[in-house]
Amino acid sequence: MAADALNHASMTLADHLPILQVLVPFVAAPLIVFIGSRSLAWPIAFVTSVASLVVAALLLAQVIDGDVISYHIGGWAPPLGIEYRVDATNAFVLLLISGISSVVLPFARASLAAELPVRKHTLFYALFMLCLTGLLGVVITGDAFNVFVFLEISSLSTYVLIAQGASRDKRALSAAYNYLIMGTIGATFFVIGIGFLYMTTGTLNMADLAVRLEGQGGNRTVQAAFAFIVVGIGLKAAIYPLHFWLPNAYTFAPSVVTAFLAATATKMAIYVLLRFMFTVFQPAFVDGGMTLEVIILPFAIMAMFAASLSAVFQRDLKRMLAYSSVAQIGYMLLGITFLSESGLMATIVHLFNHGITKAALFMGVGCYVMRTGGGFYSQLSGAGKTMPWTSAAVVVAALSLIGVPGTAGFISKWLLIEAALDRGWWFVAILVVASSLLAVIYVWRLIEALYLSQPAEGATVQEVPLGMLVPLWIMAGACVYFGFDTDITLSASRAAAQGLLSGSVAVH
User: Fold this and answer.
1) Distance between CA atoms of 22 and 169, rounded to whole angstroms?
2) In terms of Cα–Cα distance, which of 306, 295, 362 is closest to 329?
3) What three-state secondary structure class fits 357?
4) In terms of pTM, does the model score above 0.85?
5) How far, CA to CA in Å, does 346 sit from each of 139, 236, 339, 349, 473?
6) Spatial separation of the C-alpha atoms in residues 206 and 209, rounded to whole Å
7) Mapped to the 3 state alphabet, what secondary structure does 209-278 carry?
8) What's the maximum distance between 2 C-alpha atoms anywhere in the chain?
9) Main-chain dihedrals φ then ψ at residue 503, nearest 5 degrees
10) Which pLDDT tens digit goes with each residue over 376-386?
């Protein structure tokens, strides 16, 4: 024990990167409250977020070639102690979450001034840091129960963040309440599933769970655990038809909250689903009972079409994008059902590309809310003329949402089609194209409102401040950049897919 303690103490700062990924934002949250200064709250949050981004980038650089980092909390070796485990899959998601946070926070500074009373700003940034802590913790931990703990940290802070929208619209309170109820049900299902696994194996370490669950595909308790976990995470990920909390939550929350959650929260949940399906239960268990083809595939296809059709008939831009998010989650599920390297690559790439796309679109909505007072199409009439820079960025992100060549969205949908054809599911490939055409319809309705409708009489050019415009264009630019330069996304997703399918246990 003394030798272990000495080795732990002699580790360099670089060796402690996994714990710093979670610890830095976790410390920042109470620090913001303790200082209590409105002028210092944002700088602390922003510096913390950038630090998290740097840590995530350093971690990804270490594992992108297929290595795995195992960090033992307190010097106790797993499976007895708590382990933070980093591989290409979760390092990529960590980069997405911390990157979105670092871009959204500058946007928040100006956006909150228009949507939230000044007295609430300090609390907002503290809650934002807690939410970031929870999201990063869920992704990096190698302990199944810790996934639940961090999931609740992110969820509880999210409920309050959504409720902050009541300053503009009281319906934010009911949206937050509905999300609380559904989130609690999802968390209960998840923790029951974890309990079943612990009852069967006597361990909570995910790598150890994978070893002990081998050959137990016929165990009814394990099968029940799988069902509870999938349903619980399905609620968190807003998988169709478990998505009913999402449209109102996204619509009535402050714009900056929606931009952050749409780009990160559901993506985190999809990651957890991937981790349990392919690391804990193993591909052989998942495919053994035709779970993916019989259960997951139909819901994925229903999401792609039902949610897209709902988006077509919306009159509020926020609500339209919310239903669009449910449809895009369907694409991610579809990639999982192929149970192949190309399918998982498509899922992971789409998880990243959709994150940056939705961040840009919801930030665009925030700009419109600031200048027009709302996001209804009728309020956006002629905004392409009165807010040309904002509208141009929104159109770029909208094209990525459709999957137009030259954008990030095209890459992930192309990979999905390739994966479907590799599997021989040509009909599914046709459905992917068809559902993308539905996206053309609801995006066209937006473009029609922005550019083909006349602005109100006497309206002048009223662009938002640069503090909002620059982050918006960073995300819009990312939609184009990752549509041409795919080295990072494809290499990271390939390493992630290979690791998930092989159950790599290499330790750095």
Assistant:
1) 33
2) 306
3) helix
4) yes
5) 19, 21, 11, 5, 25
6) 5
7) HHHHCCCCCCCHHHHHHHHHHHHHHHHHHCCCCCCCCHHHHHHHCCHHHHHHHHHHHHHHHHHHHHHHHH
8) 77
9) 65, 45
10) 888 888 888 88
pLDDT recorded at residue 71: 85
3-state SS of 60-102 is HHHHCCCCCEEEEHHHCCCCCCCEEEECHHHHHHHHHHHHHHH
421: amino acid identity, one letter: L
**Domain residue spans in the chain?**
2-502
C-beta separation of 25 from 52 below 8 A: yes
What is the predicted pLDDT for the residue at 473?
Answer: 94
Query: Quick one: pLDDT at residue 115?
Result: 81
Q: Around Cβ 273, how many Cβ atoms within 10 Å?
A: 23
Cα radius of gyration (the chain): 22
Supply the pLDDT for residue 458: 58
Token representation of residue 250: 């996204």
- Smallest CA-to-CA distance from 263 within 98, 43, 42 is with 98
Which of 307, 337, 180 has the alpha carbon at shortest distance from 243?
Answer: 307
CA angle 389, 391, 396 (to 5 degrees): 100
Q: Is the dihedral of CA 99, 104, 107, 109 positive or negative?
A: negative
What does the pLDDT look like over 39-78, one tens digit per residue?
Answer: 889 999 999 999 999 999 999 988 888 788 888 887 677 7
In terms of Cα–Cα distance, which of 389, 405, 387 is closest to 484?
405
pLDDT at 269 over 50: yes
Distances (CA, A) of 133 to 137, 214, 215: 6, 32, 36
- Distance (Å, rounded) from C-alpha 453 to C-alpha 323? 24
Hunting for tokens 């307190």 — which residue is that?
74
Q: Is the peptide bond before 283 cis (omega within 30 degrees of 0)?
A: no
Could you tell me how far CA 243 lies from the centroid of its own chain? 15
| 193 pLDDT above the threshold of 60 | yes
How far is it, in rounded angstroms, from Cα 221 to Cα 147?
Answer: 20
Burial class (CB in 10 A: 0-12, 13-18, 19+), 491: middle
φ, ψ at 141 (rounded to 5°): -70, 145
- Give mean pLDDT, residues 119-137: 92
Contact 42, 124 (CB under 8 A): no
- CB contact at 8 A, 429 and 421: yes
- Counting Cα atoms < 13 Å in the Cβ hemisphere of 199 gives 13
Q: Does 340 score more than 60 pLDDT?
A: yes
Phi/psi at 336 (5° precision)? -65, -40
Question: Which CA distances in Å does 414 have to 10, 334, 408, 501?
Answer: 47, 13, 10, 21
